[in-house]
Amino acid sequence: MNVTAIIIAAVVIAATGIIVGIGLGLFGEKFKVEVDEKEQAIRDELPGNNCGGCGFAGCDALAKAIAAGQAPANACPVGGAPVGEKIAAILGVAAEAGQKKVAFVRCKGNCESAKVQYTYSGIEDCRMATVVPGSGAKACSVGCMGLGSCVKACAFDAIHVVDGVAVVDEEKCVACGKCVAACPNSLIELVPYESKHRVQCSNHAKGKDVKAVCSAGCIGCTLCTRQCEFDAIHMDNNLAVIDYEKCTNCGKCAEKCPVKVIL
Asked: Domains along the chain?
């Protein structure tokens, strides 16, 4: 064995390693991507769900937008006020008071009230059911199908199908909007958490046509609008609609509703 050859080979390898290491260090310094410390600090405070409820592609994109002043400090619906306050402190601004919102299903057509036109035995997915005759088994083609597309979309276990209709657990809901996007009938909307009275129907048909498919639908009688002293409820093409900005939660509309479709 040639000891000298081994030593020379070891020295060459070591020298090559040192040269490569120095080169990589120089290249890394020259081409390194500058990291915005403020953006990184904001990202560290975000929960990391990447749900898209803020309107951005994920938490990284939101952190970048907040740091650049393109989104408010409280833009994360999952983190809510606590995270908004921490991010506001990083930005050196006053925390904005955001109104908490929750998802609400505008349908009361459960298994008892909604009439059935046939037995559906297809794929348990609302979006898939829209292609079958009548958009599912229920006679009301604009109501909740109860097949759970919204349930699958929710990452927070905040919505479930109960007795044939989707129901939101408001304490778990973070208003990410995934269920809103998943519902093919556009039945789900984000409403103020504090709102006590909401219309559980989305059918714009005339009263007799609504009653023909569901006993719990809005019949457009206008009794609710005549009770409101704050101009907070109006008829929109045969359907009662509440203006949450004006509503005082007095409950008079709900008391007078003959079909009890207003919470």
From this structure: 37-91 (1.10.15.40), 109-181 (3.30.70), 195-263 (3.30.70.20)
